[in-house]
Prior knowledge:
The protein contains nine helices and 13 strands. By secondary structure, the chain is an alpha/beta fold. The longest helix is centred in the C-terminal third of the chain and has 20 residues, at 301-320.
Amino acid sequence: MLGVAKIATDKVIPAMQQGEHASVIGIASRDAAKARAAAARLGLPKSYGSYEAIIDDPEIDAIYNPLPNHLHVPWTLRAINAGKHVLCEKPIGLTVAEAEQLIEARDRSKRKVQEAFMVRTHPQWLAARTLVADGRVGDLRAMVGVFSYFNQDPSNIRNVPAFGGGALMDIGCYLINTSRFITGREPERVAGAVERDPKFGTDRVTSMLLDFGTMHLAGTCSTQMVPWQRIHIFGTRGQIDIKIPFNAPPDRACEIVVDNGKDLYGGGHELLTFPVCDQYTIQGDLFSKAVLDGTEVPEPLEDSIRNMECIEAVFRSAESGSWERPGKIGRS
């Protein structure tokens, strides 16, 4: 693990320690004391006083990179070049052009590299995609989502533009990613609206409309709004309500509702419940198994590039006031 970020120490490491296909043996920090403390708390046998030290350790096969967004590509490249496989937090990079460097490095090194969109591993999302593909909601027409939290700490990396902060890069990317996951398609055009914090300069409210032709995603994300997340998927004969779509709890069952539209009082509701699981455990195991078996990772970098193209298109649209086509800028 690179760094002692909260997502690593509180979520990912404990989850991966429950997995079947990987052993978490070390954590690195630029502060050796912080690394030692984190290793002791988590029961890890090794700690490192620099990122270079863990990457250069021959005992380490793979690196998990949860560093701030602007450090995703540089340290993932450093790890790949040292012969390590890498599971990197989202977003994979700050721009399409930057992220494309990882494809060249992956192909040259023959290492496994994947962006960590853990939601794609959760049974509730797999079930939602299957329900849509099987025609349970009829013809797909719309997906509507909100993802928000409240954070006005000026020292928090999510509020620093140079670190890739802001709502769209941090959480709006999930709205884009899951709409592409559910449809299995790429949007034809994108519209975006951005409202920026006057002090930080980051986008504190971003809304987007992704046009998939016969289906639209309408989504809003915010770093300064009441904490909330929800996804509704609408078709011609039904809708799916994913109650906790992104931060699915690892200690309780998850629920989605399938509604055939019989009435507005729940007469057509069917509640689907999914047993307790940890999506970070599943993600770590699937990535590790790909490494061990020499197979393709579940989510290739090419998919990550497509997601970044949509993010860039949302920002371009907010500036131009016009529809933008993903991939028009930045694709090799």
